[in-house]
């Protein structure tokens, strides 16, 4: 998947009909249950393939926490974050020919019916069409973390991306949420979400990160406005930083999520922090500066190494 190109005219047409005219987040994301083609049980592999429109494709995965406390993120992403992200990666060109996939993240341990939802890799307005098919289950709660490691497992085991397979160029994964990292996944969790029994009873977050990092550079964005972060932010920052180092990023304004993701990729691809921050105006520059202050251009996917 991943033909076509993002265009402003397509976005204006789609958003007028499906986004800006809607007053509630539930009117944008109208699915009443998980959509069959976003259900991991029905997905053998998601492909990001080069095409005539995108001859040097780069895979970009964004996993959004869709539990109860994070509904505002989905609303803002549909209304403005997706536009900022898509326009940013196309106009600033930190990566070539982006193919975007979105994931909806819930809590498998808390008994969410749909703890993982996965769109296709797309490059045009189908990005938005796929995103708004995600089911807002709510749920989560009770264990101080959501299932942020499920996207890592899916990316490692169920994606095939030309950027890595043809050019040894890693893709990117960004998960977004306000709680601590998933400490592990159980075999029974994988069986329930994916429909098959793995060869392990339990796998640690560290091992899952290693698996995903073979093909992707992995980041997590901590949403400071989330209810859990407001209560336990010190612990959230500590645990994510211990796991990801400087790739654990703090987001002080969720309305600037798209700009922060684009800025992070720019720095990973070699731009200086000062140049990236100065490229944004006003309050956006302040939010970006705070989010990326710990990054440096040694965090690069060019050679597969992470230097802290």
Please provide a brief summary of the model.
With 308 residues, the chain is an alpha/beta fold.
Walk me through what this model shows:
With 308 residues, the chain is α/β, with parallel strands linked by helices. It has a single domain (8-292), classed as von Willebrand factor, type A domain (Rossmann fold). Helix content is 40%, strand content 16%. A 6-stranded mixed beta sheet has the order 4-3-2-6-9-10, with helices on both faces. Strands 1-5 form a two-stranded parallel sheet. Strands 7-8 form a two-stranded antiparallel sheet. Strand 2, helix 3 and strand 3 form a beta-alpha-beta unit. It is globular.
List keywords for this structure.
308 residues, alpha/beta, Rossmann fold, globular, disordered C terminus
């Amino acid at each position: 998947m991943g033909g076509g190109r993002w265009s402003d005219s397509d976005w204006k047409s789609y958003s007028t009909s499906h986004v800006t005219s809607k007053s509630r987040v539930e009117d944008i994301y109208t699915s009443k249950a998980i959509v069959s083609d976003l259900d991991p049980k029905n997905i053998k592999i998601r492909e990001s393939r080069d095409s005539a429109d995108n001859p040097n494709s780069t895979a970009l995965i964004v996993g959004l926490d869709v539990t109860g406390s994070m509904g505002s993120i989905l609303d803002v992403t549909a209304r403005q974050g997706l536009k900022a992200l898509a326009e940013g990666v196309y106009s600033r060109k930190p990566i070539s020919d982006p193919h975007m996939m979105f994931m909806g993240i819930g809590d498998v341990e808390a008994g969410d019916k749909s703890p993982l939802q996965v769109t296709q890799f797309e490059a045009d307005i189908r990005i938005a069409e796929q995103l708004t098919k995600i089911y807002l289950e709510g749920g989560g709660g009770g264990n101080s973390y959501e299932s942020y490691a499920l996207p890592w497992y899916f990316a490692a085991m169920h994606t095939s991306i030309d950027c890595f397979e043809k050019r040894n160029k890693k893709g990117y994964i960004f998960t977004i949420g306000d709680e601590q990292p998933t400490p592990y996944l159980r075999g029974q969790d994988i069986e329930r979400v994916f429909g098959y029994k793995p060869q392990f009873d339990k796998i640690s977050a560290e091992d899952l990160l290693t698996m995903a990092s073979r093909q992707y550079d992995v980041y997590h964005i901590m949403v400071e406005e989330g209810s859990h972060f407001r209560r336990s932010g010190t612990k959230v920052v500590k645990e994510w930083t211990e796991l990801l180092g400087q790739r654990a990023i703090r987001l002080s304004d969720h309305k600037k999520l798209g700009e922060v993701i684009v800025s992070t990729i720019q720095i990973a691809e070699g731009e200086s922090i000062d140049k990236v921050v100065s490229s944004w105006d006003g309050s956006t520059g302040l939010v970006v500066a705070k989010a990326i202050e710990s990054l440096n251009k040694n965090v690069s996917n060019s050679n597969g190494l992470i230097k802290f």
